[in-house]
Amino acid sequence: MNDKTIEVNEISYKILTKMAQIYIAMYVIDIIEDRGYEYKIVETLRPFVESDLGARAKLRSVLKNVIAPSHLARALDFTNLDTLNYRMKDKVSISMDYIGIHYGWIRARFIALDYTDDGKLKSVIFTSQIIDDEKKVLEELRKMSFTDPLTKLYNRYAYDHDKLDYNITPDTVVYSIDLNGLKVTNDHFGHEAGDELLKGLAECLINVFAICGKAYRIGGDEFVVIAETKNPEGLKERINVFNESWSDGKEFTLACAVGYASGEDSIECMMTVADTNMYKDKALYYKNKQK
Fold this sequence. Notes:
alpha+beta; Beta-Lactamase; 46% helix; Alpha-Beta Plaits
């Protein structure tokens, strides 16, 4: 072995050492020989590693002790070395995320390392990395994408997503709600006052439907609630009571038109009927206001 080879090996070792710091476990697995060569494992996981087992049995043993039961079947499928050659065909690496018992979210990864002369996968690097922080960031971004920034209710995107997958029951009721007088409030008191009305209605819907429904702002002054209730008219009345209480002592009034519907076979169909009823309620509101 010449000096150049020694230098390259030392650099490679340093690289692997630095890489290993990222992971809670790092193995080189010989698939053909069914052997696993430990490069790193944290002490928390060491009690679950039986060194006299082959790579296949060792992976199964560790996973059964460290993976949350709800994710175990997927983790076992992912770490099945007998199907790895097929799953990694033309790929440098594959990964899967699952929840661990000791560390929360973990990402497992196989990285192709060597092949036999006939092109079959011979050995891989197997790593496990904690990704809790990454998952928290992704969850926060997901919430932001589903949330109206002004009212903090769910937005149109969330409504369009939910209405397709909603499990409709005999008690499912869709409410179409439209804020009354927003333009007048904006013109006379400014847009900050209008924003206060919108946030006031959001507060109302959260208060009224906290237990039985999910509220969305789907447009400028348009709101939808999907609820489970046997008393839809009673909830409508609670909206009116809340609005009157909120408006007491203020220069501008919180009022909204409300229509609801049930008994249809889709959220979209119920929304169509609820919209019609909401416009009837709005017309009645302005008719009474002119008296």
